[in-house]
Sequence to fold (100 residues):
Amino acid sequence: AEIKKVMDGPGGLAAAYKEMDERCKRTQEETIAELELMKEEAAEIDTLTIQSILEKNPQWKAAIEEDIANNIWDPAHIPEKIKEATLAAGDAKEKEAIAA
Fold:
């Protein structure tokens, strides 16, 4: 009875396993989608243009245009709008890069 309680009770091992399994599946799906996008981008690398990148990332275009309008030309400068969009998206690797 005690083992059943530990396994199947609220907050038990079965519930913890199910939650972990669901998180792993979501992470796997997100990773596969990201890899598929990278594969598409790699296939287009020979014809990739700044225009096509900015079309896919309109917030980048707006931020760059704002910097140009404000006469900010420092290549190390990351526009605030891009920082905000990246932080809102929750991409850990991008957050690390911005923090550096």
Summary: DSSP finds six helices and no strands in the chain.
